[in-house]
Design brief:
The complex is a heterodimer. Chain A is of the alpha/beta class. Chain A has helices at about 30-40, 60-80, 100-110, 125-135, 145-150, 165-175; strands at about 5, 45-50, 85-90, 120, 135-140, 160. Chain A contains 6 helices and 6 strands; from the N terminus they run E-H-E-H-E-H-E-H-E-H-E-H. Chain A has a 6-stranded parallel sheet with strand order 3-2-1-4-5-6. By secondary structure, chain B is of the alpha+beta class. Chain B starts with a strand and ends in a 10-residue tail after the last helix. Classes of the chains: A alpha/beta, B alpha+beta.
Chain lengths: ~180, ~700
């Protein structure tokens, strides 16, 4: 394992039905930044892969999105961690929009990592599907839409489920 | 710290002689780069190469990497402790990762604040553990254009590998290189030595091999060969002349050089010297011997054997037996070729295609001949020798000798033309029309040679451009770039003054029966101009000087060059800077006002002294320069015009060009136009950067 990929909304920060449209609306889930810091300290690279169709719907612009990224990066840095890349899909559909695997495959290529040993931690069925299509290792957390996902869909048995990002990372690092 | 010698030797099947040294040097270079990147220290790197091995010795290599300071950055201090002063999860996690307690952590101040921090000393790794990777990576960097496989495996290398020897001091470093396990033995000479040679220590390498009849070091082996051949030459009262490339190649054909002198029949000396030398050097790798006084070829040769034979006469006779039929072939060609007069071969040139749309070499030859006639007229010289040379210059391509030795094209033409009784200038021109052969190479010495050299290239350039096959930076199969440079050098350095556009145009006309020429003539001229730019760049002449002359579009290269030199001289004058600016100013004004050049100057409209003086001066100087200018003395013309500087400066200080009265304004602009014209006749000085 050289890296870990994370979904953003619902895994790192609290999700909102009306989209996270500013740094102000982006509130971290408890322990998520600590979790990322632990991953960095363990020598793993951390990437974020998220759908951001709010851009296509003109609910916020790129400058705002980047300021959200910047704020996240700074908070993680304060804890001794590092986010190695923010990957996002700004479109309403297409091969990069989860559940399509395009975004994850792009990370694999650019960061030169082997996806087959790389966990992708998400909170929705789309995340699980994207990971399976890209032949990465899906992990589901119950935060964000996670609990609802478990109620509504049948998740394949091999997908590990954790309460939140911190718990998932705890388990990953124990191995 | 332990330091010792590292030896890496890869034993192979005979390496290609021209590539071997490069491979050895690249291997040593790549290895030292790997060591440097990992901070291993060493005193020196010694590459070795023989036909059967690539090796490198690294002296005083440290056994271990130096200790490394590893610094890890943790959470910021303000995130490290909670409001009760207890360590946070982030801080505890960091301490745990570093394998220490909170109290062992340090603090680092940065511009962003205070950070938790931990520095430790990590012991370096040993060479034993890293060498495998270093060698593999270095081998990957070797310039092997076509690696080969052998036996049943799919390992690839330049030649099959027979053994690998890797010693650090006296112990073997366990490695597997290309499926060979590293060991502590090597092999000596193929014939003079038997079986494995165990090496007790890496430092024993050179001597152990020497005892086994192998001189491992390239430079040593080369100087042994050099000494031997010089001795042979002395013994025969002869002199050596050979290219360094031959010596380099021969050095990599042997492990234990032994020079042997052979001889051949004197009768072969009637064959052209160039043929004999080429056969000996290129086909056989021999060193020819020459008479010490007149440099004529002697009927001897030196071959470098790889054996210290107890019966060297066998080697001598064996080689003589090989060279004899080769010389007999050459003799046969020499006799047979001379049965036909060079001039009688012209029709047969129709059998050699020059280019699909441009026709045969014969057709090219005829075009070049016509072009040569025209060029001679332009140069006002007698055309006889040039025309004859143009007619004959390609005919030797049909001879058996040139067919056997393509590099002797032109040279054989000279010999055969001479045999036919042609004029000596014609004979030399046939050989010389190929010059210059390479960048900076010698130019033809005869006028006919220069003329044909020019016309042949002009025909090729215009022809190929007309077919649409313009050369690019990476693709230039007809060597048009070299052809253009040759035209420039032949014009400027051989001082041939003719109108290039006129000659190009004539070439175009001659090509019209074969294909549409359209814009090819203009394109070729532009192409040559670009090569002119590079020509001056190579001489460290500033680009703006080239541009200033280019702007006035001279079409005679000798003239172009004279202007360039004139501008260079002008720029050494103190006045030149302000005159360049003044010209820029004038150029800007003229551009903005779309000046009508036919408007005559009316002296009566001048009111101020400054403009009257300027007008007076320019008129005088114009008359002064006219004869100088006609004689092509651009330098003097510009120097003379430099006298205008004070009046031009004064004009701009005191006179308002854009007067409200249109007639006055137009008059002043006309005056400026007059000044501008005087300079522009030589070059556009306004393009000179300060």
């Amino acid at each position: 394992m050289q890296a870990v990929i994370l979904d953003r909304d619902g895994v790192i920060n609290h999700d909102r039905p009306d989209y996270v449209k500013s740094p102000h609306e982006c509130c971290p889930i408890d322990g998520s930044f600590d979790a990322i810091a632990r991953l960095s300290q363990a020598g793993l690279k951390v990437f974020i892969a998220s759908n951001q169709s709010g851009l296509a719907k003109k609910l916020f612009d790129y400058a705002t999105l980047f300021s959200i990224h910047h704020s996240m990066a700074k908070q993680v840095e304060l804890l001794g961690g590092h986010i190695d890349g923010f990957f996002f899909c700004p479109y309403l559909n297409g091969p990069e929009r989860k559940p399509e695997p395009g975004l994850l495959l792009d990370i694999g290529e650019r960061a030169n990592i082997d996806l087959s040993v790389t966990p992708f931690i998400g909170d929705t069925l789309k995340d699980v599907q994207a990971a399976l299509s890209a032949q990465a290792l899906p992990i589901l957390v119950r935060t964000g839409k996670g609990q609802a996902t478990l109620h509504e869909h049948l998740i394949p048995a091999q997908v590990p489920i954790y309460d939140n990002l911190y718990a998932a990372v705890d388990s990953l690092l124990k191995e | 710290m332990n330091k010792d010698t590292l030896l890496i030797e890869i034993g192979t099947e005979e390496l290609p002689p021209n590539a071997a040294k490069l491979l050895s040097d690249s291997f040593a270079q790549a290895l030292s780069e790997q060591l440097d990147a990992a901070h291993f220290e060493y005193r020196e790197v010694l590459p070795f190469v023989t036909p059967r091995r690539l090796s490198v010795q690294i002296k005083q290599l440290s056994a271990q990497q130096p200790q490394q300071q590893v610094a890890r950055k943790g959470p910021a201090i303000k995130a490290a402790y909670d409001e009760h002063g207890q360590a946070t999860k982030a801080a505890l996690g960091f301490a745990k990762t570093c394998g220490v307690e909170m109290k062992d952590l340090q603090t680092q101040e940065t511009e962003k604040g205070a950070w938790l921090y931990f520095e430790s000393c990590v012991a370096g790794q040993f060479i034993d553990d890293m060498l495998q990777e270093f060698v593999e990576q270095s081998l990957k960097k070797l310039p092997v254009p076509r690696p080969m496989r052998w036996g049943a495996s799919d390992t690839e290398f330049v030649r099959p590998i027979h053994w690998v020897c890797i010693l650090y001091g006296s112990r073997v470093i366990p490695c597997t290189i290309k499926q060979h396990t590293a060991n502590n033995f090597t092999y000596g000479h193929r014939f003079h030595s038997n079986g494995k040679i165990s090496l007790a220590h890496a430092d024993d390498y050179v001597n152990a091999l020497k005892n086994a009849y192998v001189i491992a070091d390239f430079a040593t082996r080369q100087s042994v060969i050099k000494q031997q051949i010089e001795q042979c030459a002395q013994q025969h009262d002869a002199r050596l002349h050979y290219p360094q490339s031959l010596l380099d190649e021969v050095t990599n054909l042997v492990e234990w050089p032994v020079a042997v002198v052979g001889e051949f029949s004197q009768k072969f000396l009637s064959i052209p010297k160039e043929v004999l030398v080429m056969t000996m050097q290129e086909s056989q790798r021999y060193f020819p011997l020459f008479n010490a006084e007149d440099n004529s070829l002697l009927a001897y040769f030196i071959t470098i054997a790889n054996i210290e034979s107890s019966r060297p006469e066998t080697i001598k006779l064996g080689n003589e037996r090989v060279i004899k039929p080769r010389f007999e072939d050459a003799e046969f060609f020499w006799e047979r070729d001379r049965d036909i007069r060079l001039s009688d071969r012209s029709q047969d040139l129709n059998g050699i295609l020059f280019e699909k749309q441009l026709g045969s070499i014969h057709e090219k030859s005829e075009r070049v001949t016509q072009l040569a006639t025209q060029l001679c007229t332009m140069l006002d010289i007698n055309e006889q020798a040039s025309v004859k040379a143009a007619q004959l210059c390609k005919n030797d391509l049909l001879t058996d000798m040139v067919n056997e030795f393509p590099k002797l094209q032109g040279t054989m033409g000279r010999y055969y033309a001479s045999h036919d009784g042609e004029n000596i200038e014609v004979c030399l021109a046939i050989e010389e029309h190929y010059l210059p052969l390479y960048s900076g190479g010698a130019l033809p010495t005869t006028m006919a040679g220069k003329v044909v050299a020019l016309c042949d290239r002009v025909d090729t350039l215009v022809g190929i451009f007309a077919t649409g096959k313009k050369p690019t930076g990476v693709k230039d199969p007809y060597a048009l770039r070299r052809a253009a440079i040759a035209i420039i050098r032949l014009s400027i350095e051989a001082d041939l003054d003719f109108d290039l556009t006129q000659l190009l145009h004539s070439a175009g006309e001659l090509l019209k029966p074969k294909l549409a020429v359209d814009t090819a003539v203009d394109e070729v001229f532009e192409y040559i101009m670009e090569r002119m730019r590079a020509y001056y760049q190579d001489q460290a002449i500033e680009q703006d000087i080239f541009e200033s002359v280019r702007a006035v579009r001279p079409t005679r290269l000798v003239d172009f060059n004279q202007r360039v030199q004139a501008v260079r001289t002008f720029l050494t004058l103190e006045e030149s800077t302000s005159l360049a600016s003044a010209n820029k100013r004038i150029a800007n004004i003229l551009k903005k006002t779309h000046h009508q050049s036919h408007i005559a100057i009316d002296k009566g409209l001048f009111s101020q002294q400054a403009e009257k003086t300027l007008y007076q001066q320019i008129t005088i100087l114009e008359n002064e320069i006219a004869p100088i200018f006609d004689a092509g003395q651009y330098s003097q013309a510009l120097t003379t015009l430099a006298k205008l500087r004070p009046s031009i400066d004064r004009f701009f200080e005191e006179v308002m060009v854009m007067d409200d009265d249109i007639a006055v304004r137009d008059n002043r602009i006309a005056l400026l136009h007059k000044v501008n014209q005087a300079f522009i006749a030589t070059a556009d000085i306004s393009l000179i950067q300060s």
